[in-house]
Design a protein that fits this description.
The structure is a single chain. By secondary structure, the chain is of the alpha+beta class. It folds into 2 domains: 132 residues, Creatine Amidinohydrolase, Chain A, domain 1, CATH 3.40.350.10; 213 residues, Creatinase/methionine aminopeptidase superfamily (Creatine Amidinohydrolase). Strand 3, helix 3 and strand 4 form a beta-alpha-beta unit. Bound molecules: zinc ion (2 copies).
Length: 362
């Protein structure tokens, strides 16, 4: 990972915005900027006149890890809470103002920083400064994300082989997660969704103790984290013979998903991608059952910008990686969702998820 390029880009952005320094508390942003994977730390990022000045504060639990992982920052192992010592550093550097990440700092954390600075330095809210950089993935990130997607996809067969009427959704999720670990995943990107039978009408039906029924849809939505990067995919399969109604539902969602994917290209507004699939479902008579947005960015976090939703004017650009995941959910009937990860390329798109979208009957 080229941390130095990222650090220089952020420094340029801060200078452009007239920000002297940024107190970074959001761990995914810290990981992005200097490679630290631990769960506690504060990065004081000074824009500097020419080159950025980074001070990473963490506690004694992370002494060795921080020294091994952190790139381009001075590592400070603190005895007092890391935010307090970061504030001491702000004062020592003679800064007049320091910005904080307003989207991520809780009110109690804000009050704590204010007290630590004792009114000597002004705290200014900022939003999305690092996230803007993270929108387009660099070559190293695209490679990591490809690897995570392939690992995730390789688990699909395992999931299918465990699906049988009478087996609980939890068992299906558990086998999938064990295989993920065996294949090298650090953990899952989120709680695995296995929603079978009538539960498939729940857009976010986390795996439960419910037994898989003799007939109906099963939505599998899961992802893995590999080297700090997330994957996210959904496939819907059918247990027992598919009725005409269910086949029609499945085909409508697949057509909608393909239409949205076709709309992915640099310069397209995120809302256009959403609209393309939504129109297909509307025409097929399922408009009212598509109750969520079409997709989201994926990277260090499983839900990032951009949002592919109605009315979003954010323009897509090369290097963005988004999910495309329309679905329909009919109460007392069932639901279908199909989700791929898609890379925005110079000329259009590349679907990263290689898994088949043919309707599978088990
Ligand atoms: Zn998903
Ligand atoms: Zn998703």
């Amino acid at each position: 990972m080229n941390y130095s390029v990222r650090q220089k880009k952020l420094a340029a952005k801060l200078r452009e915005e007239g920000i002297e320094a940024l107190l970074i508390t959001h761990l995914p942003n810290i990981f992005y900027l200097c490679g630290f994977t631990g769960t506690a730390g504060v990065l004081l990022f000074g824009a500097g006149d020419r080159s950025p000045q980074l001070y990473f504060h963490t506690d004694g639990r992370y002494t060795q890890q921080a020294r091994e992982q952190v790139k381009g920052a001075k590592v400070i192992i603190t005895k007092n809470p890391a935010p307090a010592e970061a504030c001491e550093r702000v004062k020592k550097l003679g800064l007049k103002a320091v910005s904080f990440e307003a989207d991520h700092l809780a009110y109690a954390g804000y009050k704590y920083l204010n007290q630590s600075l004792r009114g000597k330095v002004r705290l200014k809210p900022s939003s999305g400064l690092v996230e803007q950089l993270r929108l387009s993935k660099d070559a190293d990130e695209i490679e990591q994300l490809r690897a995570a997607v392939l690992l995730g996809s390789s688990l699909f067969q395992t999931a299918l082989s465990t699906i049988k009427p009478g087996v609980s959704e939890n068992v299906v999720a558990g086998e999938l997660e064990l295989q993920a670990r065996r294949a090298g995943a650090e953990k899952m990107s989120f709680d695995t969704i296995v929603a079978s039978g009538l539960r498939s009408a729940l857009p976010h039906g986390r795996a439960s103790a419910s037994a898989i029924p003799a007939s109906g849809f099963i939505i599998l939505d899961y992802g893995v984290i590999l080297a700090g990067y997330c994957s996210d995919m959904t496939r819907t399969v059918h247990v027992g013979r598919t009725s005409r109604t269910h086949r029609k539902m499945y085909e409508a969602v697949r057509d909608a998903q393909l239409a949205s994917i076709e709309a992915v290209r640099p310069g397209a507004e995120a809302g256009e991608v959403d609209k393309a699939g939504r129109q297909v479902l509307k025409k097929a008579g399922y408009g009212a059952y598509f109750t969520h947005s079409t997709g989201h960015g994926v990277g260090i976090e499983v839900h990032e910008s951009p949002r592919l939703a109605r009315g979003q004017i954010q323009k897509l650009s090369p290097g963005m990686i988004v999910t495309v995941e329309p679905g329909i959910y009919i109460p007392e009937e069932g639901g279908v969702r199909i989700e791929d990860m898609v890379l925005v390329t110079e000329s259009g798109y590349e679907v990263l998820t290689p898994t088949t979208k043919d309707l599978i009957e088990l």
